[in-house]
Amino acid sequence: MVSDMVGSYLKVCGRGDVGVGQMKSFTVGGKQLLVVNIDGNYYVVSNVCTHAGGDLSKGRLDGNVVECPRHHARFDVITGKVVSKPKVGFLRPDIKDLKVYQVKVVDDDVMAVVE
Fold it and tell me: What is the value of pTM for the model shown?
């Protein structure tokens, strides 16, 4: 664990665990996290879709947007913002943005403030 002014960073994975243009899920501190590597930059968000709890790591990554495999809600993994709502028939239920975790890379470790 590495302390910082904003909180304590925990190791989520190694840099080599998530290739460029890929995403992978990890559980750290009891939280399900999604690590995404975009052009060598790492982003960590909640791995659980805010609509119906879908596993985002089983979805599709298109640039910086992940699509939930259950109802196709889409989220920007850099900001956590909802890009498009889920598709459930003619309904487009309101959903919350994903939780975004502060990230830094120390040596070969991808670390995040997991609170």
Answer: 0.90
